[in-house]
Amino acid sequence: MAKDKTSELIEKRKKKANSLRDSHIDLFPNNFRVSHTIMDIRDALKKEPDRLTEDTPVFAVAGRIMAINRFGKAAFIRFTDRTGQFQAYVRRDRVGDESFGFFKLFDIGDFVGLKGGVFKTKTGEWTLLANEVRLLCKSTMPLPEKFHGLKDPEKRYRKRYIDLIMNPGVRDIFIKRSLIIQTVRRFLLERDFLEVETPMMQPIPGGAEAEPFITHHNALGIDLYLRIAPELYLKRLVIGGFERVFEVNRNFRNEGVSTQHNPEFTMLEFYQAYATYEDLMDLTEQMLRDVASSVTGSVIVNYQGSTINFDKKFKRMTLLSALETIGGVKPELIKNKEKLFEFASVKGINITKIARPGKVITKLFDVLVEPHLIQPTFITGYPVEVSPLSRRSDEDPAVTERFELFIAGKEIANGFSELNDPQDQKRRFLQQAEDRAAGDKEAHFMDEDYIEALEYGMPPTAGEGIGIDRLVMLLTDAASIREVIFFPHMKPKGSKPFSA
């Protein structure tokens, strides 16, 4: 919509609003009582259509006008509420001359209250015949033209409220997002997990390899970090006797923005005492199967042209075997850091010289293997160097009892048998501190309080984090994480947007 045309429409709307005010019409009343939703009307029509007439029963509904078709002494309107869209017929001889005169000043985008019965039009569409029509909120900003809608992603994300008004498919994504979280929550509650809350501002950030955001607490006179993960606090609760806990949490990581990353994101994190990482792999299969079925109605999901099958047993591979069979990395390269660097350089993969062999290996995996893991696949056997909170494998102390779950080329979950040996944990933290001092901003901080907590004893435990945003992407066929977050972070207006 051209700027001058928009300004003209706004001016016309303001004149209508002033005319209504001059007639002592409240533009923002709050005394209309709604008795039914649009869904209630449709349900009533399904159950007893023969008993519904223009006069009985009387429905009192409200919603936003999305279309008006005026002709003389009557008009058809389409209006929406949270449950759907319906048609109403407003006739002068039915609502009265005065009300109909005011109705002529209503615009698309206004909220109205309607009372009346229902009838079928000549085309067979059930329609509400209004006995009363009232303005509930006057809008002065015009909505985008219905034919063109709101298509520009930049505008859609900045003005999500318009996106939700104009694009029903977007609203459906967020309804499914809510259902996904509800289903996950119910799944865990049914298995005796306790939902908890842990601090979002922490004196020491921990639980993941990420660069944190820093803030300052004036009263305490200290810097605090927005949490990058709730892990170390949830494990403190396990130490305290809560053997099964979970949190649907907001995390913050000061890193790049892309189609798969937002600085603020939602994770499910849960911990189970007397369980192993293999137990959690089994549990995760059950959970995702249940969620997919509940949200989409099927265990077969289509995502960006790929058919994802949640019904089959999820494939399991070690990281090294995946590198060899999928990434084309020969086994003899794995133990030779210099040759690994040369191999990465040939493949155009940038790796810093301070990176330890474990980080080089996982970086190669990220680039050469991850995009090819379309069907649900657990990758196990991560090096100790990149798993500072994971228990070492009894069979091979160089790797840990850890898995990551990949679906459609994306990491969806990360879990492991927890390291509960305080001495080993301290050594790992010290190694991370060295990496941080060498320039690795994502390395873990030393957390002496957590070490002390472990010294009181943590039972054998397994824990896992699942990225809710990416799971929503997967189950709603969304190509970008920004499609599944109501208000994704954006660059200031006027700056160059990041690529989609």
What does this structure look like?
The protein is α+β, with helices and mostly antiparallel strands. The protein has two domains: about 5-145, OB fold (Dihydrolipoamide Acetyltransferase, E2P) (Beta Barrel), CATH 2.40.50.140; about 165-325 and about 370-485, BirA Bifunctional Protein, domain 2, CATH 3.30.930. It is about 35% helix and about 25% strand. The protein has 16 helices and 18 strands. It has an eight-stranded mixed beta sheet, with helices on both faces. A five-stranded mixed barrel has the order 1-2-3-5-4. It has a three-stranded antiparallel beta sheet with strand order 7-9-8, with no helix packed on it. A hairpin with a 2-residue loop joins strand 2 (about 75-80) and strand 3 (about 85-90). Helix 7 (about 170-190) crosses helix 16 (about 470-475). The longest helix is centred in the middle third of the chain and has 22 residues, at about 170-190. About 35% of the residues are buried. The mean pLDDT is about 90.
Brief account:
This protein has about 500 residues and is an alpha+beta fold. It has helices at about 5-20, 40-45, 90-95, 95-105, 155-160, 160-165, 170-190, 230-240, 275-295, 320-325, 330-335, 335-345, 355-370, 420-435, 450-455, 470-475, and strands at about 60-70, 75-80, 85-90, 110-120, 125-135, 195, 200, 215, 220-225, 245-250, 265-275, 300-305, 305-310, 315-320, 375-380, 400-405, 410-415, 460-465.
